[in-house]
Automatic annotation (TrEMBL):
Gene Ontology biological process terms from the UniProt entry: galactose catabolic process via UDP-galactose, Leloir pathway; glucose metabolic process
Main subcellular localisation: cytoplasm
Gene3D superfamilies per UniProt: 2.70.98.10
The keyword Cytoplasm belongs to this UniProt entry's keyword annotation: yes
EC number: 5.1.3.3
Entry's Gene Ontology molecular function annotations: aldose 1-epimerase activity; carbohydrate binding
SUPFAM superfamilies per UniProt: Galactose mutarotase-like
Name of the protein in its database record: Aldose 1-epimerase
GO cellular component terms listed in the entry, alphabetical order: cytoplasm
Active site residues of this protein: 254, 394
Binding residue positions for beta-D-galactose: 154-155, 254-256, 326
EC class: isomerase
Gene name linked to the record: mro_1
Length: 429
C-alpha cells in the first residue's frame, strides 16, 4: 500500500443544487521512490427526496467538497477519488490490500457498509444499513444504523441531570427518558470530513461543533472522530472532544452486525463472548438501578462463548424489560488496564467462519440483540431486517452516569480532552 507522504486535493469547479455534481480534482502525491499519481473523480447523478421535513444542522457554510482518495495496492500508477454527493452529504470508501471495504458518510459520521471475507474468501456486507441517504433520513424506527451517537450515548433518566447545582433538561425521546443525544443528536448532523493516509492504513477524519445548550447540554463541544482501516482488517475508531463548560460526554459507534451478511436470517446462532463478570441491571425504562450484578448463573453470562439465542427467551425479568439483551456489561480489567485498550467481546459466526473482535478503552459495552427490528425496514440487499437480524456492541461509559454517582464519571471539564478508542477486527476460523 502506498505510504503517501503528502496529499493535496483541490476542487476546481462545482455546480450546486440537485443537479449532477460536476467537478475536477487536482491531486498531487509525493513519495521518495514513487512516481506522481493521477487522481480522477467520477461524478454521480443523485436525487434527494427528504419526505417529511427534517431539521438538519450542519457545520458547513456551503457545499462541502471532501473526497476520499482510494489507492490500489496492486496499481501504484493510478488512484481514484470516489465521491457521491447529496449536496453537503458525501459517501466515502476505504479499501485495504486484502479487499476489506468500509463505506461511510459524513451524515451522522455513519458506517453504511463493511465488506469482509468468510473462510473461503467470499466477500459480503456484514453491516446493516441503506444504499441511499433517504433511508437514514426517513427510517421509520430510527434504529441509528452505523451512526456515531452523542453527545451522550444511551439513556439519561427522566431527560435531566444536575451539574454543579443546576438542573439541565433534555429531550425525552425514549418514553420518559433521553436517548442517544436527543431529537437531533450527532447521528443526525452533517460533519466536516477529510481523508487521512498513513503507513498501512487509510481513513477519514470527521469534525463537528455542538453548540452550547444544543439538545439541552451545556458547553460548546468540539468533537473529532477518526476512522482508520488497516491492512490487518481492523477498523480503528478514535474519539476526541473538548469543551468550554463542564458537560457530560459519552460517544459510541452504533453499527448493527450480522456476520452471515446483512439481511441474512437472524444472529441468534452467532457465538458471543463478552469479557465481563458483571452487568448493570435496569428498570422497566431500561435505566440502570445503580447496582452491579454478577452474570454467573444468569442468561447474561457470556464469559464463555455461547449462541446469542441460547437463553434469550428464558423467563427472566431483565430479559423481559429489554425484550432480549439490551444491557450494559461492565468490562473486566485491572487497575493497570484502566484507559488502555483491551478485549471487550468476540463474536463467531459458525457457518461462514467470520469472527469479530471488539477492543476498547471504555469501561462498558452495551450488547443489543436487535429486539426492535421487526421486518419493517428494508436494507441494502433489498431484504427486510427481521426480528433479531443484527446485533450491536456499543462501547461506552455506563447509561445514566450523570445521575449515578457510583458509576465512572462522564463529566468533561474545560481544559481536558475526552479520548476514547474502539477497534473492530475481522478474521476467520
Amino acid at each position: 500500500m502506498l505510504n503517501a507522504k503528502h496529499c493535496n486535493v483541490v476542487g476546481d469547479r462545482l455546480i450546486m443544487g440537485r443537479q449532477r455534481l460536476q467537478l475536477k480534482i487536482n491531486a498531487k502525491y509525493r513519495h521518495e521512490s514513487l512516481p506522481k499519481l493521477k487522481c480522477s473523480v467520477k461524478p454521480l447523478p443523485v436525487s434527494l427526496s427528504l419526505g417529511k421535513p427534517m431539521r438538519i444542522r450542519t457545520a458547513l457554510p456551503f457545499l462541502l467538497l471532501s473526497t476520499l482518495v482510494s489507492l490500489s495496492s496492486s496499481e501504484l500508477s493510478h488512484a481514484e477519488v470516489a465521491v457521491e454527493d447529496f449536496d453537503s452529504i458525501k459517501l466515502y470508501t476505504l479499501k485495504n490490500q486484502s479487499g476489506m471495504t468500509v463505506k461511510l458518510t459524513n451524515y451522522g459520521a455513519t458506517i453504511t457498509s463493511i465488506i469482509v471475507p468468510d473462510r473461503e474468501g467470499n466477500m459480503v456486507d456484514v453491516a446493516l444499513g441503506y444504499n441511499r441517504v433517504e433511508g437514514y433520513l426517513n427510517a421509520v424506527d430510527k434504529p441509528y444504523f452505523g451512526a456515531i451517537v452523542g453527545r451522550y450515548a444511551n439513556r439519561i433518566a427522566g431527560g435531566q441531570f444536575t451539574l454543579d447545582g443546576k438542573t439541565y433538561t433534555l429531550a425525552t425521546n425514549n418514553g420518559e427518558n433521553h436517548l442517544h443525544g436527543g431529537i437531533t443528536g450527532f447521528d443526525k448532523v452533517v460533519w466536516n470530513a477529510k481523508p487521512m493516509e498513513g503507513d498501512g492504513w487509510s481513513g477519514i477524519e470527521l469534525n463537528y461543533k455542538a453548540k452550547d445548550m444544543e439538545e439541552g447540554y451545556p458547553g460548546n463541544l468540539d468533537v473529532k472522530v477518526t476512522y482508520r482501516l488497516t491492512n490487518a482488517n481492523e477498523l480503528v475508531i478514535d474519539y476526541f472532544a473538548t469543551t468550554d463548560k463542564k458537560t457530560p460526554v459519552n460517544l459510541t459507534q452504533h453499527t448493527y452486525f450480522n456476520l452471515k451478511g446483512e439481511g441474512e436470517d437472524t444472529i441468534l446462532d452467532h457465538e458471543l463472548m463478552i469479557n465481563a463478570t458483571k452487568y448493570t441491571p435496569v428498570d422497566q425504562g431500561l435505566i440502570p438501578t445503580g447496582e452491579l450484578h454478577a452474570v454467573a448463573g444468569t442468561p447474561f453470562d457470556f464469559t464463555s462463548p455461547k449462541p446469542i439465542g441460547k437463553e434469550i427467551d428464558q423467563e427472566n425479568q431483565q430479559l423481559q424489560f429489554g425484550l432480549g439483551y439490551d444491557h450494559n456489561f461492565v468490562l473486566d480489567r485491572s487497575e493497570q488496564q484502566e484507559g488502555e485498550i483491551a478485549l471487550a467481546a468476540k463474536v463467531v459466526e459458525p457457518q461462514s467462519g467470520r469472527v469479530l473482535e471488539v477492543r476498547t478503552t471504555e469501561p462498558g459495552v452495551q450488547f443489543y440483540s436487535g429486539n426492535f427490528l421487526n421486518g419493517r425496514l428494508k436494507g441494502k440487499s433489498g431484504k427486510t431486517y427481521q426480528h433479531r437480524g443484527g446485533f450491536c456492541l456499543e462501547t461506552q461509559h455506563y447509561p445514566d452516569s450523570p445521575n449515578q454517582p457510583s458509576f465512572p464519571s462522564t463529566i468533561l471539564n474545560p481544559g481536558e480532552e475526552y479520548r476514547s478508542t474502539t477497534t473492530f477486527k475481522f478474521t476467520t476460523q
